[in-house]
Each structure stands twice: as structure tokens, then as C-alpha cells.
Amino acid sequence: MRRGRNRVSVTAQDATGVAKINHGFIAAIVVVATIGGFMFGYDSGVINGTQKGLESAFALGRLGIGVNVGAILVGSAIGAFVAGRLADAIGRRRVMMLAAVLFLVSALLAGAAGGSFVFIVARIIGGLGVGAASVISPVYISEVTPASIRGRLSSVQQVMIITGLTGAFLVNFLVARYAGGSTASFWLGFPAWRWMFWLQAAPAAIYLLALLVIPESPRFLVAKGREAEAHAVLSRLFSSVEADRKVADIRGSLSSDHRPRLADLRDRVTGRIRPILWTGIGLAVFQQLVGINVVFYYGAVLWEAVGFTEDNALQINILSGVLSIAACLFTIATVDRIGRKPLLLVGSAGMAVTLATVAWAFSTAVTDAAGAVSLPGGNGLVALIAANLYVIFFNASWGPVMWVMLGEMFPNQIRGSGLAVSGFAQWIANAAISVSFPALAVAPGLATTYFGYAFFAAISFFFVAAMVNETRGRELEDMAG
What we know:
The chain is an all-alpha fold.
């Protein structure tokens, strides 16, 4: 047995018999795993400042822009579904490594694309990585962290997603500023927008290399009958005694007659879909129906549409990203104290009010004789403040908490399958919102579109109140489906 070699002093039990936690090792694992969240955010946000370049290079109209921007979401939906199932077959870590390779290939190919078709293929490849990272990183983190701090550590995923988005916004701004515009010539004579994609290759390579040093999920190892390996990992995370208990608990929580499979999502007695899956799907879909990715994908276009310059619009994106990170840090500090459900309820109410305010401000937009659109009086400032308050409410609640819930709410037997279906639904909703926005912004217009997002935010409040059960402080082996 290899157990003895993996024991470290920080996991020994103290005088009270309570197992200590190897915080340093757990922190290192979480940092590496959440680089996937950073790549998720960067790959999603990099498109924000490149749309003028795409339109110019590929002669795209509004529909073409929507398709090129939304291509990543097709891959993301497929990646989320396949990754959830694949993680039960080959392991969480290997799926994250596959996602890192996909990010690297996508960055290089998207920047080099000579036409819209190749670009769409590149973005679909990146989407496969985004979808995989979006569902596997949270579940991996939830499976290697103790219940007492699982919520705050799982919330780091959203911080990294927003950091990736903000990083993409910042790179786009700096490259465009230095080159003189997103379509201007930059290094080696290539236009700036191509370098916005190519620069993503660096963090993708770092992610791939870092994954080589973290262990596989102990819950996956137990499910595969590799209990000695699972014990070794858990001994490093906690202590040998605690590892014995956890291996027994994990073994007991898994059905003994078969490996995890998609059919487990149906109740064996009634034959109906388990209610927990409908809750997971609802959380995943409502997170997108409130329109958050319109801000992330089309932020520059949105603010330019109501009178801001390209330079100012890119700066607003950076501001939104910084505020998002601050909101996520608030969630990390509170999610294991006040719980998941209260944060979701407050977030829904706050988003409904702020989105309605944005919609009202946009309803006052006027067009001058030259065709330029602007918001009269102080309404532009009202829209800007309300939009950033909306971003704060989202990232203090639904942004991180939805991923926390999906990573921990499903029983061990159906965690991979539940994540696969919920993640697929999340990305389909994302695609529907993101691809439809360019057309909706024209007819029926920005005001009506944002009122629609406000309506879904209000409905999400009642969904959470009726369907979501609190998971704070519960062991994963105690989750019921």
C-alpha cells in the first residue's frame, strides 16, 4: 500500500479528535482547477472587442455576426453534455486536460482564420473546451474540498471566470489602444483583433501543464474501484483516519449494482425524471435568461449603440469586470455562512429591479439628424449605473452560486449525468439569448429586450423559493435525489 508515503503532518488529528485539513494542498488544487474557469471566461469574453474586425474581414451582416459570436455556444452545449458523461468514464482531471488542449487549438485557429467558416469551426472547438470546463471544474472542486468550506472554494470558479472575462477585456482594450483600433495593423502586420485571440494560447498552455500536478477526484477513483488511490488522495487532503471514513462513505453512497449512467436520472420506482434534475435544469437556464452574457459578449457594441465611443465602451467592460470580481469575493465570504438559497433570492430581486431600470433608460434613446443614437439628460449615467448594479447582483448570487449548486446538489450516483444535462441546458439557453440579441436590439429594440430579461429575473425568484433546497454544510454523500 502507498498510504504511508502520502501522509503529511498537517492532516494529523488534533487533541479533540477532529481531523485537520491540508489547506495548502487544497488551495493549490483549487487554483489549478479554476484556471479552467479563467479560460472559460477569457474564451467567452475575447469576442467582445473583435466584432468590428470580424465584420470587416469576413463581410458579415447582423445575422453573420450573431452566428460567428454564437458559434462558441454550440460547442459549449455539446462540450458540457459530453464532458459530464466522459468524466464518469475517464475521470475529471483527464477531461480538464482535454479542455485545455481544445482551448489552445481554438486560440491559434481563430486568430489565423481566413474566412467565416474556419472561424466558426475554431470557436466551436473552443466551445467544447468551455462547456467541459464549465461543468467539470465545479464538480471536481466540490469532490476534493470539505463541506465546511466547499461553497466558498467552489465560488472561486466564478471569480476566475470573471477574471478571465476581465483579462480578455483588458487585453482587447490595450491591443486596440496600442494598434489604434481593433482593425488596425499590429505585431507582424496582422490586424489587432487576430492577436486578441492568439494571446489566449499562453494561459491555455499554462492550464494544460498545471493539470499534470493535481490528483484525480477520490470519488471518481472509488467509483472505479481504485480505493487505494482514493485513500492516498484523501490522506493528503485530510488524514489517514479521515480517509478511511470518507472512502467508506463514498462507497456506501454509490449503487453497488452498476456504474453511473444517464438512465439513473429517472426514478426507479416512478419511472419519472428525478425532481432534483428539474431543479438543476431550472437553475442553469434561469442563469442565462436574465441576459448576463449580452453584457459579456456584446458589451462594447451595446454601449456604442447608445452613444459611447469604442474606447469608452471597452473601458466600461473593464469596469464591469472589476465590479464582478468584487461581487464574487463577497459571495466567497458569505456563501458558507448565510447559505445558497438566500443569495439566489436576493440576486433575483436585485436583477429584476436593475434590469427594469436599464430598460427604462434605453426606452428614452433619441436619434439625431446624423443618425447617431444617445440617451438624453442624465439617462446615460442612469443606464450605466443600473447596468453595473445588475452585474454586481448577478455575480454576488446567480453567477457563482448556480455553479456551486450544480457541483454539489446531485447525489454521487447521478452527479456526472446531472451535470451533463444541466450544463447542456445552460449552454442552449446561453445560445438562445446570445444569438438572438443582435436582431432583438433592432426589433423590438433594446428597451423591450431588457424588460424581457427583467421579467425572467422576477420569475427566477419564485422558482428558487419553490424548488431549491439549501445545501450549505451538507456532505456530498448526504445529498438526496
